[in-house]
C-alpha cells in the first residue's frame, strides 16, 4: 500500500464475514464487565488480577526492580523532608557548622537521589510493563484471530479488547501495583522509624496511615464502583448515539427525526455530566478527608511525642515526617480509584485469554496445492443461540472437484450460514465438514482459503486502489490476471474508463463506487483467488436482471473445470447449467435436483421460478 491513508488489507485471500459473525462464544458480562464464567464479581476480579500476575511472571524480576526503586524514591522523599526539618530546626540553635555538615550533604544527596531514583523507577517500570503488554497484545490478537467467528461479529469489541483493555493491564501494574506496594512498604518503615524515636508517637502515626492508606482507599473504591455502575451504561449509550447521529444523519433527516434524536442524546449527555460532577465532588471530599486526617495525625503525633519527652527538634521531624508519610499513603486513594476503573477491562481481557476457544480450525495439516478438492457436509447442524431454532438442521452436501451446486431458498433459510460453515468461519454444532476426507478443523486455518473461499455476504472493500483490493485475492497477480478477473466480473470496462485505471482509489468501504461496482470488485477478487471450491454468496446482488445473468455466465465460464462452485442466489435464472440445485427452508433441505426437475415438480422452487419469470418478463418488456 503506497498511500499513507489507505488501510492495509489483511493477509487472507478471502473475506470471512457474513453469518460467520456469531456472538455465540462471548460470555455474558455485567456492567462492570465481570463475566458470568467467573462466578461472583469479587471472585472474577481477583481471578483477573491473578491472571495478570501469571502473565507477568516472566518479567517478575524487572517488576520487582521497579517496585524497589519506587520504594526507594518514596523513602528518599520522606528522608529528605525529615532531614531538612532537622537541619532547619537545629540551625535555629546556631550550633557549630561541622555539626550540620552531614545533614547538609544528606539533604543535597537525597534531593538529587530522589530525582534520579524516580527517573530510573519510571524507566524500569515502563520497560517491564511494555514488555508484558507487548506479549499480552500478541496473545489477545492470536486468541481473537483463532476465533474468527467472534471477531467478525464484534469488530468494535475485538478492537477495544486489543487496544484499551490491554492498556488496563499496563495501568494495573504501573499505576496500582507498583506504587501501591511502594506506599505500603514506606508506611511500615515510617512507623518503624517513628517507633525508634518514640513508641508512643508511632501509635497515632500507624492509625493515621491505616486510615489514609486503607480506609480511605476502600471508601474511594466503593464510591467509584457505584459511580462507574451508573456512568458506564450512560457512556455506552452516548457512544451509540454518536454513531447513530453521524452514520444515520441522512436517514434521520429523511424521516424528520433529527431533532428528537438530538434531544435524546443531549438529555443523556446532560445526565452523564451531572453524574460525573457528583462523582468528582465525592472524589474531592475523600481527598480532602485524607488531608484532614494527615493534619490530625501529625498533631496527635506531636502531642504523643511531647508527652514522651522527645526533644523539640525530633518532635518537628516527627510532625513533618508524618505529613510526608501520609502524603505517600494518600496516593493509594488514587490507586484504588484507578483499580476500580480498570476492573471491567481487566476482567474482559483475562476472560478472553482464559476462556476455552471455539477456534474452528486449529490443525496443522497443510492444504495440498492440487486444484480439485472434495468437500462434503454430513448432517451439519448450526445453532447460533441456545434455544433458538437451528440455522442449519442436518444438511448433507457433496461437492467433488468440478461440481457446481446452487443453493436457493427463502430469506433466513440458512444459505449464508452454509457458506460460512464451508469456509470454516462457523464451526458446526453437529455433523462433519470434510475437505478431501479430513475434517476442516484439522487444516491450517491460514491455508484453508486456498481450498475453499470466495465472495461471502457483505464483502468488505478497502479504502485502497482497485489493484490493491484485487491483489488481496492473489498477491503478485499480473495485469493479465487482473484483466481476466475484472472482465469476468464485468468491471473491466469501468476500470479502463478511469483516468488512473487500476490505481483508482475506491474510497472508504468502496464509497466512491456504485453498489454494483463494489459487488463486481469483490467478485473479481474472489475469482482472482481461484480457490478449489469457489463459494459465491449472492455474487450478482445489486445488478439488474440482464447484467446479473451476464455476470453470472462470465463468472462461471472463468472458473476452471476442475474447480467446484457453490452459488447462493435469490435469482433462479442461470441455474440450468448446475449439477444440483438445493432448496433450503428453515435450515433443512426442502428440495434438491437439477433445475429442470425442480421446475417440473410442485414446491417452492417451481412457484418462485414462475414468479421470477413473470416479473422479469415484465421488466424486460418495459426496458428500452
Ligand atoms: N450471526 C448470527 N447470529 C445469530 N443468528 C444468526 C446469525 N446469522 C444468521 N443468523 C440466523 O440464522 C438464520 C439463517 O440465516 P442466514 O443468514 O444463513 O440465512 P439466509 O438464507 O442467508 O438469509 P438471506 O437470504 O436473507 O441472506 C436466520 O434465522 C438468522 O436470523
From TrEMBL:
Residues 1-47 are annotated as: Disordered. InterPro entries: AAA+_ATPase (IPR003593), ABC1_TM_dom (IPR011527), ABC1_TM_sf (IPR036640), ABC_CydC/D (IPR014223), ABC_transporter-like_ATP-bd (IPR003439), ABC_transporter-like_CS (IPR017871), P-loop_NTPase (IPR027417), Type_1_exporter (IPR039421). It is found in: Cell membrane. Residues 64-344 form the ABC transmembrane type-1 domain. GO terms for biological process: cell redox homeostasis; glutathione transmembrane transport. Its main location: membrane. NCBIfam families: CydC. PANTHER family: ATP-BINDING CASSETTE SUB-FAMILY B (PTHR24221), ATP-BINDING CASSETTE SUB-FAMILY B MEMBER 6 (PTHR24221:SF654). This is ATP-binding cassette, subfamily C, CydC. It comes from Micromonospora pallida. The lineage of its organism: Bacteria, Bacillati, Actinomycetota, Actinomycetes, Micromonosporales.
Amino acid at each position: 500500500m503506497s498511500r499513507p491513508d489507505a488501510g492495509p488489507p489483511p493477509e487472507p485471500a478471502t473475506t470471512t464475514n457474513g453469518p460467520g459473525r456469531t456472538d455465540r462464544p462471548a460470555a455474558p458480562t455485567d456492567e462492570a464487565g465481570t463475566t458470568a464464567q467467573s462466578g461472583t464479581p469479587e471472585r472474577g476480579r481477583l481471578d483477573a488480577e491473578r491472571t495478570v500476575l501469571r502473565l507477568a511472571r516472566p518479567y517478575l524480576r524487572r517488576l520487582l526492580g521497579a517496585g524497589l526503586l519506587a520504594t526507594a524514591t518514596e523513602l528518599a522523599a520522606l528522608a529528605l523532608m525529615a532531614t531538612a526539618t532537622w537541619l532547619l530546626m537545629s540551625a535555629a540553635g546556631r550550633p557549630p557548622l561541622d555539626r550540620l555538615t552531614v545533614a547538609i550533604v544528606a539533604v543535597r544527596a537525597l534531593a538529587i537521589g530522589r530525582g534520579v531514583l524516580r527517573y530510573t523507577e519510571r524507566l524500569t517500570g515502563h520497560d517491564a510493563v511494555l514488555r508484558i503488554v507487548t506479549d499480552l497484545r500478541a496473545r489477545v490478537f492470536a486468541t481473537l484471530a483463532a476465533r474468527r467467528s467472534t471477531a467478525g461479529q464484534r469488530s468494535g469489541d475485538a478492537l477495544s479488547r486489543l487496544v484499551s483493555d490491554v492498556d488496563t493491564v499496563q495501568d494495573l501494574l504501573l499505576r496500582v501495583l507498583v506504587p501501591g506496594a511502594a506506599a505500603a512498604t514506606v508506611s511500615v518503615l515510617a512507623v518503624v522509624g517513628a517507633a525508634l524515636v518514640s513508641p508512643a508517637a508511632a501509635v497515632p502515626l500507624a492509625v493515621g496511615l491505616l486510615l489514609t492508606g486503607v480506609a480511605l482507599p476502600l471508601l474511594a473504591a466503593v464510591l467509584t464502583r457505584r459511580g462507574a455502575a451508573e456512568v458506564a451504561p450512560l457512556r455506552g449509550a452516548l457512544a451509540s448515539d454518536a454513531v447513530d447521529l453521524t452514520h444515520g444523519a441522512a436517514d434521520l433527516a429523511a424521516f424528520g427525526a433529527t431533532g428528537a434524536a438530538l434531544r435524546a442524546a443531549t438529555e443523556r449527555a446532560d445526565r452523564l455530566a451531572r453524574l460525573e460532577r457528583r462523582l468528582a465532588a465525592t472524589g474531592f471530599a475523600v481527598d480532602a478527608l485524607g488531608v484532614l486526617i494527615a493534619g490530625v495525625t501529625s498533631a496527635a503525633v506531636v502531642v504523643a511525642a511531647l508527652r514522651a519527652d522527645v526533644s523539640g527538634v525530633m518532635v518537628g521531624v516527627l510532625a513533618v515526617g508524618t505529613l510526608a508519610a501520609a502524603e505517600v499513603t494518600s496516593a493509594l486513594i488514587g490507586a484504588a480509584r484507578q483499580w476500580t476503573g480498570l476492573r471491567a477491562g481487566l476482567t474482559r481481557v483475562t476472560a478472553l485469554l482464559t476462556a476455552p476457544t471455539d477456534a474452528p480450525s486449529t490443525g496443522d495439516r497443510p492444504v495440498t496445492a492440487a486444484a480439485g478438492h472434495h468437500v462434503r457436509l454430513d448432517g451439519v447442524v448450526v445453532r447460533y443461540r441456545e434455544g433458538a431454532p437451528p440455522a442449519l438442521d442436518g444438511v448433507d452436501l457433496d461437492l467433488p472437484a468440478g461440481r457446481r451446486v446452487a443453493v436457493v431458498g427463502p430469506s433466513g433459510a440458512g444459505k449464508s450460514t452454509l457458506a460460512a460453515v464451508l469456509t470454516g468461519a462457523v464451526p458446526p454444532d453437529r455433523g462433519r465438514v470434510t475437505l478431501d476426507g479430513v475434517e476442516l478443523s484439522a487444516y491450517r486455518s491460514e491455508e484453508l482459503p486456498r481450498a475453499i473461499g470466495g465472495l461471502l455476504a457483505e464483502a468488505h472493500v478497502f479504502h485502497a486502489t482497485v489493484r490493491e483490493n484485487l491483489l488481496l485475492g492473489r498477491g503478485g497477480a499480473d495485469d493479465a490476471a487482473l484483466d481476466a478477473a475484472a472482465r469476468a466480473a464485468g468491471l473491466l470496462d469501468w476500470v479502463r474508463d478511469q483516468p488512473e485505471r487500476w490505481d483508482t482509489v475506491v474510497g472508504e468501504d468502496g464509497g466512491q463506487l456504485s453498489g454494483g461496482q463494489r459487488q463486481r470488485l469483490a467478485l473479481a477478487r474472489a475469482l482472482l483467488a481461484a480457490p478449489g471450491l469457489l463459494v459465491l454468496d449472492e455474487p450478482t446482488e445489486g445488478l439488474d436482471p440482464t447484467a446479473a445473468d451476464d455476470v453470472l455466465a462470465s463468472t462461471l465460464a472463468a472458473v476452471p473445470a476442475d474447480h467446484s462452485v457453490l452459488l447462493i442466489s435469490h435469482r433462479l435464472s442461470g441455474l440450468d447449467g448446475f449439477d444440483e440445485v438445493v432448496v433450503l427452508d428453515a435450515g433443512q433441505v426442502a428440495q434438491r435436483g437439477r433445475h429442470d426437475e425442480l421446475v417440473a415438480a410442485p414446491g417452492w422452487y417451481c412457484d418462485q421460478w414462475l414468479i421470477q419469470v413473470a416479473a422479469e418478463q415484465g421488466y424486460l418488456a418495459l426496458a428500452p
